Amino acid sequence: MNTTVARSGEMIASEVDGEVVMLGVEDGKYYGMDDIGSRIWTLLDKPRKVSELCALLEAQYDVSAAQCAEDVLTFLNELQSRKIIEVVDDASG
Amino acid sequence: MTAANVARYHVVAGRDVCIERVPGATDEEVLTYVTGVVMGALLHQRGVLPLHAGAVVLGDHAVAFSGSGGAGKSTLVAALHRRGHGLLADDVCAVRVDDGPAALAMPGFPHLKLFQESIERVGMGSEELRRILPDLDKYYVCLDDDALGEPGPLTNVLIMNADEQVNVASLTPLTGREKLEALLRATYDHRRLDGHGNRPAHFEMCTRLANQVAVHRLTRPVDWDSMDAVLELVEQTVG
């Protein structure tokens, strides 16, 4: 939760009607984000700690801290595996 | 790019097209690709967005009709033209997308490519028609140059599909991701974008376009007996 994540720079992101779609520069694939995914991407306009992301999302969505943390970490791992975001500073080790 | 058994085409700097004809390939075969994929590549190189769409002028603006083969783009565009609307494009619709408030749809070739059945249905082509390819029942219907409309602000893109399950035509607005994806797929020869080397530029153009036009899915009955109803729906809602 203390890890800092940031957009990787591998993606060209576009927004239409509040929904985010991205093009991977290297892989040439398109990625579409749902409502919450688009929100997380928008919140990553600068590098943020995972805990900070969760706090911001909890304020906006009706979700428990535990559920939010679990969902966000799963989602961020997915984004990282696709090189959409990167870990800037891993404070856990 | 290569058309098997026909020719190799080299498109350079959005201006020059060099054609290496395969011995035995006919003029018709060679030209079919020129008006299609070669033109698409040329437009990409010029930073102009080629939509796989027909387009007409409706009132003071342009409307494009996209969709996969058999969706009825050419037939609908031909029918609209017969009703007095200026033709802009039949197969490749050149759209200038820049920072301005509106995208601009440009006039293309003054001809339509129609199956015999469609030609009869829209009441065209009593004169001699030229086959597009020897073994295809599709023909060029050539129009006078003054049949072409003026470049106009593109306000609507309709993605057509024919549905066996429906009896009445309908329009469904697309928004967000779905809207952008529809435009990405409506681009001419979009699967070959990497060969043109400008997928990022294309993506940005489609995003800008998505914020400048309304996109709808136009679902029509398979049977074109409903054509008048479809034409009225289009003229009334996006005209």
Question: Which term fits the overall shape of chain A?
Answer: globular
Q: How do the helices and strands follow one another from N- to C-terminus of chain B?
A: EEEHEEHEEEEHEEEEHHHEH
Low-confidence stretches of chain A: none
Instruction: Give the largest interface pair and sizes.
Output: A-B, 15 and 17 residues
Spatial arrangement of strands, main beta sheet of chain A: 5-1-6
Overall CATH architecture of the largest domain in chain B: 3-Layer(aba) Sandwich
CATH fold name of chain A: Outer Surface Protein A, domain 3
Number of strands of chain A: 6
How far apart the termini of chain A lie comes to 12 Å
Number of helices of chain B: 7
Provide a quick synopsis of the model:
The complex is a heterodimer of chains A (93) and B (239). Chain A is α+β, with helices and mostly antiparallel strands and 93 residues long. Chain A contains three helices and six strands; from the N terminus they run ββββαβααβ.
Structural commentary:
The complex is a heterodimer of chains A (93) and B (239). Chain A has 3 helices and 6 strands. With 93 residues, chain A is an alpha+beta fold. Chain A has a single domain (4-84), classed as Outer Surface Protein A, domain 3 (Alpha-Beta Complex), CATH 3.90.930. In chain A, the strands form 2 sheets. A 3-stranded antiparallel β-sheet of chain A has the order 5-1-6. Chain A has a 3-stranded antiparallel β-sheet with strand order 2-3-4, with helices on one face. In chain A, helix 2 packs across helix 3. Chain B has 239 residues and is α+β, with helices and mostly antiparallel strands. Chain B has a 5-stranded mixed beta barrel with strand order 4-5-12-8-7. In chain B, strands 1-2-3 form a 3-stranded antiparallel β-sheet, covered by helices on one side. In chain B, strands 9-11-10 form a 3-stranded antiparallel β-sheet. Chain B is globular. The model of chain B has no long low-confidence stretch (mean pLDDT 91). The chains are: A alpha+beta (93), B alpha+beta (239). At the A-B interface, strand 2 and strand 3 of A face helix 4 and helix 6 of B.
